[in-house]
Amino acid sequence: MSYAFPPGGLPDQSTSPEGTAVFTPAYAVLPAVTQRDIVTSHLPGWTGMRMWVLARPLSGFAETFSQYAVELAAGGGSDTPETDEEAQSVIFVACGQITLNIDGARHVLDAGGYAYVPPDTVWTVWNDGDAPGRFHWIRKRYVGAEGVDMPEAFVTCDQAVAPTVMPDCGGVWATTRFVAPDDLRHDMHVNIVTFQPGGRIPFAETHVMEHGLYVLEGTADYLLNKDWVPVSAGDFMWLRAFCPQACYAGGPGRFRYLLYKDVNRHMPLTPTAR
To answer: Is the pLDDT of residue 155 over 60?
Structure first.
């Protein structure tokens, strides 16, 4: 099993640049075709890595999170992957294998592997295998709350968590929740949403949560603000707060995406980081 990841490479000269890539005041779409070698970055303190920056805090747009797609060559990695002691992370492995060491505990993650790393945690990430390891990395500065404990690190996988089926949908819409919605220790959720063919969001969701949606599998038509946009595996959708959204998954296979949202905290009344 594997999940979508930026294709890299470079299209040939006959390819038209026109497509579904768009940046608006309410949302952006970065199709897989835009995620090529020439737009990668590298981080200090790493070896054998490159990454695509899919989202970053952007004033007046989505301000709470960053999202990377990271490729580690065999033997690549870092003993100091996170330089912000206030940042929490979710790691989701798309293909290959990586090894995390979190506070002295070693975890080998294959495709579908999921790890939550709290802020101010000592952790490392390496690719001890012979093939590239590719993973999605979502980062958010943690917002504490009085009387609420800091969440603990945990490691699981997509295959080990039973999806929660949405009510009154005939089983065609489900969410794999790696954290309980009422666990107030967590101020972000990174879930996987799955639609079977014919499944849809039957209203225009309009809410305060910002979103990063990376399509892991399948195709669908996605409503973003007032625009229906065709999306498929490897495409990334980036939504600011209150951007209306809905989905229709026409098939032929299921449609799945990795979803970030900020949750469970007061709204700041001054323009400070959330």
So the answer is: yes
Question: Under DSSP, is residue 33 helix (H, G, I), strand (E, B) or coil?
Answer: helix
* CA angle 266–272–273, rounded 5-degree value: 80
Distance CA 226, CA 25 (A): 12
Q: Is 49 helix (H, G, I), strand (E, B) or coil?
A: strand
Q: What percent of the chain has pLDDT over 90?
A: 94
| Token code pair at residue 233 | 């595996």
Reply yes or no on whether the pLDDT at 98 is more than 80. yes
| 272 contacts: CB under 8 Å, gap ≥ 6 | none
* Strand-pair partners of 224: 227, 245
Query: Any idea what the Cα angle at residue 177 is, between residues 180 and 262, rounded to 5°?
Result: 75
Cα separation, 99 vs 42, in Å, equals 19
99: Cβ contacts below 8 Å, ≥ 6 apart: 77, 106, 107, 108, 109, 125, 126, 127, 128
Using CA atoms, how far apart are residues 271 and 39, in angstroms rounded to an integer?
Answer: 30
Detail the DSSP E strand segments found in the chain: 22-23, 27-30, 47-55, 65-78, 87-95, 98-102, 105-109, 113-117, 123-126, 133-141, 154-157, 164-165, 173-176, 188-195, 211-217, 219-224, 227-232, 236-239, 245-248, 255-262
Cβ–Cβ < 8 Å for 77, 49: yes
CA 227 to chain centroid: 22
| Nearest CA among 221, 239, 240, 223 for reference residue 231 | 221
Other Cβ atoms less than 10 A from the Cβ of 216: the count is: 24
- pTM for the whole thing? 0.96
pLDDT, average across residues 89-105: 98
Average pLDDT, stretch 59-79?
A: 97
Tell me the CATH number of domain 22-262, given options 1.10.10.60, 2.60.120.10, 2.130.10.10, 1.20.1510.10: 2.60.120.10
